[in-house]
Amino acid sequence: MYLRRNCTENATQNVLTNIQNFSIDILMNTFKKKNLMLIVSEGEGQRIEFKEKLSRLNREFVAFANAAGGSIFVGIDDKGKIKGNQISNKDISEIYNIARNCDPSINIETLKYNENVFEIIVQEGVDKPYRCKEGFFLRVGPNTQKLKRDEIRDIIIAEGRFHFDEVLNKHFQFPQDFDRKRLNDYINLADIRFNGISEDILCSMNVAEKIKGKLYLNQAGVLFFAKIPQQFIKESYISCIRYQGYERFGIIDRQEIYGDLIVLIEDALKFIKRNIKVKYSFDEKAQRREIYEYPIIAVREAVTNAVMHRDYYYDASHIYIHVFADRLEIENPGGLLHGLKIEDLGNRSVRRNRTIADLLFRAKYIERIGSGIQRMRRALELNNNPPMEITATNFFVVKLYPRVDKEESLHLTPRQNHLFQFIKGKGRITKREASLWLKVSDDTALREIKALLEKDLIIKSGTGKSTVYILK
């Protein structure tokens, strides 16, 4: 009796399990079908490719792996019409072989739909760039494009697998182009104790390598220890310009700074210090204290970061320092490294030029813990400067705004400070002038004007169209 009841219960359970599995299969197939219809309606794109038949898969695999990954739907033509295609086990085996034969191998998954549509899911590569026997390819929108030499190089650099400063410079001749004084100055600055010959200390600092008895300096070594670094790396200099007003015209002072990286940093700081405002205060001991409109700690950090993190492969431009009447801008070629966001700055330490960073660390210019941005923010806050602005496209740009005296205000936004400096320069403005200067609508300009009125920094004069706002 017990055995019969137990067998009946097991049979019932098996039936229920089969029904449940069948229901799940029906739901999954329905879900897939709906997804497929949606995909077909959207058409080909950055991560979707349609193929009526199995052809040229290696190019598509490489293109997707070099981009952000994607899916190839076999059995759908270019116009998005489902044709269907019978894929055999032999075909599936060949598909995986194609992925394995790419250099390096590419990870894929496969999925079959009821309509005889076969999806090949290509994962984004973690070891870019990838290639097949026809070359290197990249997915750009709905197209697969063959990469040129410079484009391949850009991927390698973006992935952080090829560091400019570690490449040997074959044009540099040792000892003819070597500056022993620069090396001695650096050794003293970094407190290095070494009694050996120049070749040995250069190799120990990872800036030189001996090959068949001949010494070669890498790019970092050239930037620090060549007699004329710009002879070998032409754009490794800084243009410093001070303008009369708020735009890039009316030049008051200009200096092109050449030399090794330490000279670039120090001479750039000298230029900035002589072209920004400074006032003096005295403490209880009658000792004079200099108060610059931009904290020198923040300025030094910004200049050092520009020299250290710039993209030296970008040989069409160099570092610029612009001193305007209402702001200081420091810009260097090269945006953020791949995978890094602006909000990560100050929290993560990522180095584009590792050897340059190590040399600056030894010379006590950086701390190598990603704390530079935090020090800048703190220095600006203590000096009563508005927060800095950072943008990163092809160029990395840091904008600093002048300090606001305590008797004026402590909490101006960058745009309010921008407007306030404009009024200080002109003495009086209209709402329309404020709008044009800030490049915003009249309503937005009026809100910023009201903020300055509330802070008692300016006063209103006149009514209607005759209204002007005057520096108090």
Features:
14 helices, Heat Shock Protein 90, 20 strands, disordered N terminus, flat, 4-stranded mixed β-sheet, Methyltransferase, Cobalt-precorrin-4 Transmethylase, Domain 2, 38% helix, 472 residues
Model description:
The N and C termini lie far apart (103 Å). The chain has helices at residues 2-42, 57-66, 89-100, 149-158, 180-189, 198-204, 219-225, 261-274, 296-309, 354-362, 372-382, 414-426, 431-438, 442-454, and strands at residues 48-51, 70-74, 108-112, 118-122, 131-132, 135-140, 143-146, 208-211, 214-217, 238-243, 251-257, 278-282, 288-292, 319-323, 328-333, 389-392, 395-400, 428-429, 458-461, 468-471. Strand 1 (48-51), helix 2 (57-66) and strand 2 (70-74) form a beta-alpha-beta unit. Mean pLDDT is 85; it is low at 1-8 and 15-34. The protein has 472 residues and is of the alpha+beta class. The strands form six sheets. The protein has a six-stranded mixed β-sheet with strand order 11-10-14-15-17-16, covered by helices on one side. Strands 1-2-4-3 form a four-stranded mixed β-sheet. Helix 12 crosses helix 14. The protein folds into four domains: 20-158, 2-Layer Sandwich (Methyltransferase, Cobalt-precorrin-4 Transmethylase, Domain 2); 166-229, no CATH class; 238-400, Heat Shock Protein 90 (2-Layer Sandwich); 414-471, Arc Repressor Mutant, subunit A. The protein is flat. 38% of the residues lie in helices and 20% in strands. The chain is built from 14 helices and 20 strands.
